[in-house]
Design brief:
This protein is of the alpha/beta class. The chain is about 40% helix and about 20% strand. It has helices at about 25-40, 55-70, 85-95, 110-115, 120-135, 145-155, 155-165, 185-195, 215-225, 245-255, 265-280, 300-310, 335-345, 350-365, 375-385, 430-445, 490-510; strands spanning about 10, 45-50, 75-80, 100-105, 140-145, 170-175, 200-205, 230, 295, 325, 395-400, 410-415, 420-425, 450-460, 470-480, 480-490. The strands form 4 sheets. An 8-stranded parallel beta barrel has the order 1-2-3-4-5-6-7-8, surrounded by 7 helices. A 3-stranded antiparallel sheet has the order 11-12-13. Strands 14-15-16 form a 3-stranded antiparallel sheet. α1 (about 25-40) runs antiparallel to α11, α8 (about 185-195) packs parallel to α9 and α12 (about 300-310) packs across α13 (about 335-345). The longest helix has 20 residues, at about 490-510.
């Protein structure tokens, strides 16, 4: 394996990632993501746009370049451009960009079939664009599009291309597995050939995930000695996506011990932000950032962790600003229940613990979801007179939601806190938003702190029935702790309101 001072990580969420079907970021969202990538996550470079796509993209690029110039990041902002004379160059330069990622053809088939040109003709065209770009004050990196197929089918073409352009002033030669065809053995071999033949050149590897091998291929490329890898947040990208940044960073840190600049403690924050504005949900079992990946389900695992951290691996949740949890369901043992009760500050006798465990297992057998916040109610039901959960201190007395076409929804609410009733009125972007704004008005008047809503999902059973029960699952941040509550009702807003008041009472009864 080659030795590095620092491996470069280039994030292409805002360019290649935006080619995910259904994903489109506006200018403000692009700027917010760019800032998080460079200042919070601390990747080395970001590719933010394709030249000449639209007026909206031009405005977004200008906004990012203006911010980057003011904050010292302008050399880390890159834009994809094309072999089109000086049109891409002018588009990028006039917006304030300083780096052109030029898209060249990295396989003989692409040159002859798509462009209808001879290799030397294409290479001359590239050299002409590079010269014009440098005269305009731009630095140039070169994509060898379809490089992986080029190395398999026409390696003499790839080598001829690099031979023809290696002294042209190009900073980086970027090696895309454009169609995601490689396996790790091939990625290692082909990247090794490039590094061995051109030891003085900077090579980046750009993976795609069609065979679910993008991470493994990137790992192989780093082992082969490339100087940089390309990633995207949450693996966003065309078809099956690009190489996910979270997985790559953990492999660099834990397996390859390769120095890099990324702050892994920011991965969860950045990935969840991009999830919220892209609309592409992170699978619960996505390594590192998935909602369930630090949750142990089997009782034997909780028992082993309690006795000696026997079921923990190096991916400790604290590295990523998270905590380990123990799921409640049919595979739960007493150790799982005890861990959750400990979080709630509830102590039971061994016999009480056995009865509660039996009930949780029974609910799991019926495929009912059980959360930590459900435990006080389960305890109250199972132990009846032996244990009484505190009565809700915060209750909905009444509310009215008004939805009128072309007008903002309005909510009028009356709630009870410790027996005292309060009433407020507010408008909002939606009915639930209006309800919450009215609710927080009450809290603000009383000087009561309230949790912050982090995530909100709605699950509707398949089948198309309009009277089906809806489950609203809401994740909250309370004093830097993450909690989740659920509400169930035929009406989506009512389900969300139930989940909200469940959280407020948990805070009143347990956390304080």
């Amino acid at each position: 394996m080659a030795e590095y001072r620092t491996l470069e990580i280039m994030d292409t969420t805002l360019r290649d990632g935006e080619q995910t079907a259904g994903v489109s970021f506006n200018a403000e969202e692009k700027l917010a993501i760019a800032r998080m990538l460079l200042e919070d996550l601390r990747v080395n470079r970001i590719e933010v746009v394709s030249a000449r796509v639209s007026d909206g993209e031009l405005q977004a690029f200008r906004k990012i370049c203006s911010w980057a110039a003011e904050t010292g990041h302008i050399d880390q902002i890159e834009a994809l451009g094309f072999v089109d004379g000086d049109r891409s160059i002018e588009w990028i330069a006039q917006a304030g960009g300083k780096v052109l990622n030029l898209l060249g053809k990295g396989s003989l088939k692409h040159v002859t079939t798509q462009l209808g040109k001879a290799p030397q003709e294409h290479w001359d065209d590239i050299r002409g664009v590079v010269e014009k770009a440098m005269q305009r004050g731009l630095r140039v990196n070169l994509y060898l599009e379809d490089w992986s197929n080029g190395m398999i089918d026409s390696p003499e073409y790839v080598f001829g291309m690099v031979d023809a352009l290696k002294d042209s002033g190009i900073d980086r030669f970027m090696l895309p597995d454009t169609l995601g065809i490689l396996n790790p053995e091939q990625a290692f071999t082909l990247c090794s050939q490039m590094v061995a033949r051109y030891p003085d050149l900077h090579f980046d590897f750009h993976g795609h995930n069609d065979y679910d091998l993008a991470v493994a291929n990137s790992m192989a490329a780093v082992r082969a000695g490339v100087s940089g890898v390309h990633v995207s947040v949450n693996g966003l990208g065309e078809r099956t996506g690009n190489t996910p940044v979270a997985s790559v960073v953990c492999i660099l840190n834990d397996h390859l011990k390769t120095p890099n600049t990324v702050d892994e403690s920011q991965l969860t924050q950045v990935c969840r932000y991009v999830e919220s504005i892209s609309g592409i949900r992170i699978p619960e079992n996505r390594p590192v950032i998935g909602d369930a990946v630090f949750t142990q389900s089997a009782g034997i695992h909780a028992d082993g962790d309690k006795k000696g951290h026997l079921y923990e691996n190096p991916l400790l949740p604290e590295r990523f600003g998270r905590v380990r949890k123990y799921a409640l369901g049919k595979t739960s043992g007493k150790a799982n229940i005890a861990k959750n009760l400990e979080e709630l500050g509830i102590r039971l006798t061994p016999e009480q613990l056995r009865l509660v465990t039996s009930r949780v297992v029974e609910l799991g057998d019926r495929k009912e979801s059980v959360t930590t916040e459900d435990l006080p109610f389960i305890i109250s039901d199972v132990l009846k007179g032996e244990f009484t959960a505190e009565e809700d201190k915060i209750k909905v007395v009444n509310y009215s939601l008004q939805l009128t076409r072309s007008m903002r929804p309005v909510a009028m609410i009356r709630i009870s806190i410790d027996g005292q009733e309060y009433e407020e009125l507010s408008s909002g972007a939606g009915q639930y938003d209006a309800f919450m704004k009215a609710l927080w008005k009450v809290y603000d008047k009383l000087g009561k702190p309230h949790p912050k809503l982090v995530d909100y999902t709605v699950s509707i059973p398949p089948g198309g029935k309009t009277d089906a029960l809806v489950q609203a699952s809401i994740t909250w941040d309370w004093n830097s702790s993450e909690l989740k509550t659920r509400g169930l009702d035929a009406d989506q807003t009512e389900a969300a309101i139930k989940a909200t008041f469940k959280m407020l009472n948990i805070i009143e009864n347990i956390k304080q």
